[in-house]
Amino acid sequence: METVCCVCFKKKKGDKWINGTPRPDHTISHGFCPDCFELVISRVETVAASRSTSDPIAA
């Protein structure tokens, strides 16, 4: 099974994430590479912070 980042499509090779095309004969699992995970979390935190200050129901 190969793990592929659902954002940038890098694939996990051991402890590293590399550019490459997944092999067609492998089952693919999707996840987030560390760089994309940090980017997505940062965006989620920004949206959550803006909603909590402008929407009293969200607080």
Strand and helix map with partners:
Layout: E1 2-5, E2 11-13, E3 16-18, E4 28-31, H1 34-54
Parallel strand pairs: 1-4
Antiparallel strand pairs: 2-3
Number of domains: 1
Q: Please list the strands of the largest sheet in the order they lie side by side.
A: 1-4
Structural class of the helices, strands and pairings? Answer: alpha+beta
Tell me the total number of β-strands.
4
% residues in beta strands: 15-25%
Low confidence ranges = none
- Sheet with most strands: 2 strands, parallel
Write up this protein.
The chain is α+β, with helices and mostly antiparallel strands and 59 residues long. The chain has one domain (2-54). It has one helix and four strands, in the order ββββα. It has one helix at residues 34-54; strands spanning 2-5, 11-13, 16-18, 28-31. The strands form two sheets. It has a two-stranded parallel ribbon. The protein has a two-stranded antiparallel ribbon with strand order 2-3. A hairpin with a 2-residue loop joins β2 (11-13) and β3. The protein is elongated. The termini are far apart. 5% of the residues are buried. The model has no long low-confidence stretch (mean pLDDT 87).
